[in-house]
Write a structure and sequence with these properties.
CATH topology of the largest domain: Rossmann fold
Number of helices: 5
CATH superfamily of the largest domain: NAD(P)-binding Rossmann-like Domain
Shape: globular
Order of helices and strands: EHEEHEHEHEHE
Strand content: 25-35%
Largest sheet: 3 strands, parallel
Distance between the termini: 47 Å
Number of domains: 2
Strand order of the largest sheet: 3-4-5
Helix content: 25-40%
Structural class: alpha/beta
């Protein structure tokens, strides 16, 4: 697969290091307004309207939203199926159901180095409030982890 990542200027190098073939800086270019069309758009943070994403899809493309504001998630769930075309573009959201089987698969992939989590910062449990403030600032460049010390 050929992967295009969309991120801010400060995350361009990180996106490349994670293996993106192409990187679009959304502070300089709106990928939904270019002539480039995509087979799959996976939106971890839905910054555009559903119609913008639909316009950026190939005729049989798929849009999947996995994050965003409550309003964006609601719109994807409510209107995604209406905006999907019979035999053509598919629009919608995804929700995860945790299962032990899936967690074991993830564990194996992590141990094999096939997936690598991007961790921005780690905070001890005593600084959980600061971790939440940092996360809420919108400046995290990966996951924010709260660590719990083991008691012996």
């Amino acid at each position: 697969a050929e992967v295009t990542a969309v991120c801010s200027t400060r995350n361009v190098d990180q996106a490349r290091s994670l293996g993106a073939d192409h990187v679009i800086d959304y502070t300089k270019e709106d990928f939904t307004k270019s002539s480039q069309k995509y087979d799959l758009i996976f939106a971890a943070n839905g910054y555009h309207s559903l119609s913008d994403y639909k316009r950026a899809l190939t005729p049989k493309g798929i849009y999947v939203m996995a994050g965003g504001t409550k309003s964006q998630i609601f719109h994807a769930m409510l209107f995604g199926s209406f905006m999907s075309e019979r035999g053509g573009r598919k629009m919608g959201g995804v929700s995860a159901k945790r299962s032990q089987k899936d967690l074991l698969i993830l564990k194996e992939l992590l141990e094999a180095g096939k997936i690598v989590p991007v961790i921005d910062k780690r905070y001890p449990l005593s600084e959980a409030a600061e971790a939440l403030r940092y996360l809420g600032s919108g400046h995290a460049r990966g996951k924010v982890v709260i660590t719990v010390e083991e008691r012996v």
